[in-house]
Specification:
This protein is α+β, with helices and mostly antiparallel strands and 363 residues long. It contains nine helices and nine strands. Strands 6, 7, 8 and 9 form a four-stranded antiparallel sheet that branches. Strands 3-2-5 form a three-stranded antiparallel sheet. InterPro entries: Band7/mec-2_domain (IPR050710), Band_7 (IPR001107), Band_7/SPFH_dom_sf (IPR036013), HflK (IPR010201), Membrane_HflK_N (IPR020980).
Amino acid sequence: MPWSNQNGGGPWGGGGGNNQGPWGQGPNRPRGGGGGNTPPDLEDLIRRGQDRLKNIIPGGFNGGVIAVLVLVLGAFWLMQAIYTIQPDERGVELRFGKPKDEVAMPGLHFHLWPLETVEIVKVTEQQQNIGAKASSSSGSGLMLSGDQNIVNVQFSVLYTVSDPKSYLFNLESPQQTLQQVAESAMREVVGRRPAQDIFRDARQGIAADVKGIIQGTMDTYGAGISINAVAIEDAAPPREVADAFDEVQRAEQDEDRFVEEANKYSNQKLGQARGQAAQMREEAAAYKDRVVKEAEGEAQRFVDIYEQYSKAPEVTRKRLYLETMEQVLKNSNKVIIDENQSGVVPYLPLNEIGRMGQTQGDK
């Protein structure tokens, strides 16, 4: 750095006088400006900054601070007074803690804060889960069925807020109240039915009954809640008796299987018997028709012969005699001898001779 050698001073030169350093030299000072090497005054800089700030802020420095504070407070109040309701929400404004009649719909709204406040509630479908899983140690879902069995029921309630004002101010804790009412309704319905209904046979009917009880109770409380559905997610015996219950279930399934097999065998045999009976009836009816037709035909033939006989009795009698003799004699061995012929010995074995000649002819 440069050193000033004025007055014969230097780093090792003559001793210092006024404003000189320990080696006989004064401290370095910035160049330029009037007044030689005099440094700028800090107080002067602060005073000039205050003057400039007074020129910018109307009313002076003290009045400007108040204006800034007013602007900040106004912006904060405006932020609190303006609120937004989302499409899945509804708002209820309160004036001095008393709710207004109208409900704020989705959009941008304004209220006189802090004289007025707003409570916002969601109106989309929500789910309330009740009960614990069967594997859990919690006993919140344990219920006594109508046949004195203990079941662990886990179900859920789907609901929407139909009246935001009633939902917010008629009950202190609507969700907790809904949970208690739903659990009580499920216990009531399960307590009137056997355990088999809740396990698999009548879940839909139980869910419908529970939904009706919950809706009626919440309407009595004026909760502003609409119950959409009740879904039974799981129903099982407690863990302590799960093995025994599984054995009972397997036995019941075997029983159902045996009953189904017996019914199948019974239906098969019954079908065969019915088929055979139908076949016998058809054969009997056919035999009946055949015999009746044959009898009718014989009777008709006799009537026809009688009519012909009545017209020519002698001819008919002779024809009947000849036809009868033909039927009698056509398959018998016959030896015909003319009475007018001589030379035939009556006692010759003519029948045997004829059979012998027939046998030789066949060979």
